[in-house]
Amino acid sequence: MNYWTAIVIIVAIWGLVQILRAPHGPRVGSRAEDEDHDEHSRERSAAPGRERELKAEIALLRERLEVLERITTDEESRESRERRRLEAEIDSLRGQE
Q1: Exposed e or buried b for every residue in 3-29, given b needs 16+ CB within 10 A?
Q2: Coil, strand, or helix at residue 23?
Q3: How is residue 29 annotated by DSSP?
Q4: How far, in Å, are 29, 53, 90 from residue 35 at the CA level?
Q5: What is the pTM of this model?
C-alpha cells in the first residue's frame, strides 16, 4: 500500500464516521444555516398564540403612544394650562423685584 492509498482510506473512514455521528443523517449546507432553519421552524410552530399576544401588545402600545402624543401637543390640556399659569406667576414675581 502506498502513501496516497492510505490517505484516501483515512479520509473515507473519517467521512463515514462524520456521517454516522450526525443526528439526522447527512445534511446539505452549513451548520449555521441548519440551526437558523431549525430555530425558525420552532418559532413558527409556537407562533400562532405568541403572535396574537404580540399583536395585542403592539396595539396597546400604539394606543398609549397616541395618548402621550395628544397630551404633549394639546395646548388646552390641564397640564398645559397649569404650566402657563405657573410661568405667568413666575414672570409676575420677577417683575416685582
Answers
A1: eeeeeeeeeeeeeeeeeeeeeeeeeee
A2: strand
A3: S
A4: 11, 26, 64
A5: 0.34
Name the burial class of residue 80, with classes exposed (0-12), middle (13-18) and buried (19+) by CB atoms within 10 angstroms of its CB: middle
Domain segments of the chain as ranges: 3-96
pLDDT average, residue stretch 45-50? 75
Residue with cell 395646548: 75
34: helix, strand or coil: helix
Q: In whole angstroms, give the CA distance from residue 84 to residue 78.
A: 10
Please provide the average confidence, as pLDDT, over all residues in the chain: 78
Contact between residue 88 and residue 80 where contact means Cβ atoms under 8 Å apart:
no
Looking at residue 57, its pLDDT comes to: 94
Nearest to 26 by CA among 34, 38, 18: 18
Q: Is the pLDDT of residue 79 over 80?
A: no
Single out the residue of 11, 14, 35 nearest to residue 23, CA to CA. 35
Q: What are the residues facing 28 on neighbouring strands?
A: none
